[in-house]
Amino acid sequence: MPRPLSLLTLLVVCLLWRTAEASLGDRLPEFRECVEVCARENCDPKNNPTHIPFHHRLLFWTCPQECDYTCQHIVTERRLASGQPITQFHGKWPFVRVLGMQEPFSVLFSLGNMVAHQNGLAKLRQSIPSTYPLRRYYVLFAYFGMTTWIFSSVFHVRDFRLTEQLDYFAAGAGVLYGMYYTPIRVFRLDKPTPRRESVLRLWSVLCCSLYVAHVAYLKLWRWNYSYNMAANVVVGLVQNSLWSYFSWKKWRDSHKTWAVWPGVIVAWLMMVMSLELLDFPPLWGALDAHSLWHLGTIGPTIVWYNFLVRDAQDDLANTVKSKDVKA
Description:
Oligomer: single chain
Largest sheet: none
Strand content: under 5%
Distance between the termini: 38 Å
Number of strands: 0
Order of helices and strands: HHHHHHHHHHHHH
Structural class: mainly alpha
Number of helices: 13
Shape: elongated
């Protein structure tokens, strides 16, 4: 839930994304000259090319890319020394690599989210009996979450076309699955009644079809950043609205503190997402607003799994009480 929640603020970022790719840094004459000279002096295979460290070659760094990276930092240092602001290159800030990773803190915090989902999965299996009908949906949510953040970390290690697409498709699957299982819990579509079973089948087919159409459009028709984000925003807003309604109704009926956790998580993530609109040059060359957004989703993920467990246990307890009353 935490990653697909509160995506509205990112819509503005997405709409501006295409214009940001051609950054000021790319057009600086000193940067272009630096890259050209570096490539000529270091990348000619017939003129003793500069050796690239093994761990860089392992992450597919080439000589021209090494020149690009080096020149970004040479130009940045000169601009800072002359009192000029840091500028972006290729739509990104000039990050300091760590072991060849392009955005080390984003990698670290993405892995932190993955671990949060992994621990959440263990908590679900430990605290919710296998006979509980919603458990399988929650377990799948954990798997989708782990997959999403694994591909996010891979993308932040090295930004290639392939890793970008895997990141987007995994995130899209996670967002859509979040919308899929939410009404199943809110409206209890898991209950074995003929009408609910029919609705659940139709809902499952619809969600699968939407994802296939989404991927097919991006891969076969047009890779469209604005569409991708708009689609995620719509799906995320549907999910947000349903969980906010559920949280309010559950608290109204039970007055239990844990019932408000979904609403609190929604509010928190909306605030954290605003970091994407407050973009700033990375602190120490590595910690930027995007990585802080990833950091800010770890805590809500942990709380979310606690909520799922408490909600399931409460549901099971109420079921037992109902059976006792009927008996």
